[in-house]
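Everyone, carefully examine this protein record:
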Amino acid sequence: MSEEEISDTVHTEGWPLKLLDYHERKNLALKMLDKMKVVDEATAPRLEIYTFPETCMLRVMLHMGPRDRDFELGNVEINYHSTLSDVRVLIKHELDYEDVPKQFRFLYKGTTFCPFFLLFFSTNCAF
């Protein structure tokens, strides 16, 4: 983490500013450790501040029927806090308008959520 990120965390958390002094670095490190999480990416796991948004790409596919081949519409970036409403907005704004049906339902991990055309997703997200 940069000095600026550390300073921002101290201010945001309301910790005493003396933690930024050189001789208080050990105490600062102990407090910061509680605010860190491991982010596991394809390259290597690393520590990030707990507010770091983990994202991954969600592949959106269109399934018209049992005899038709699935058609890939594209990818949208999601995070742990994305809701179905958020994903609907992302699909509407980030994918080709002509390819996305006006009404559709979601299928994720074998569970459907809404009626009409079927969009299904595949991802390698850990969440």
In short: Residues 3-49 form one domain. The CA atoms of residues 29 and 47 lie 13 Å apart. The mean pLDDT is 76.
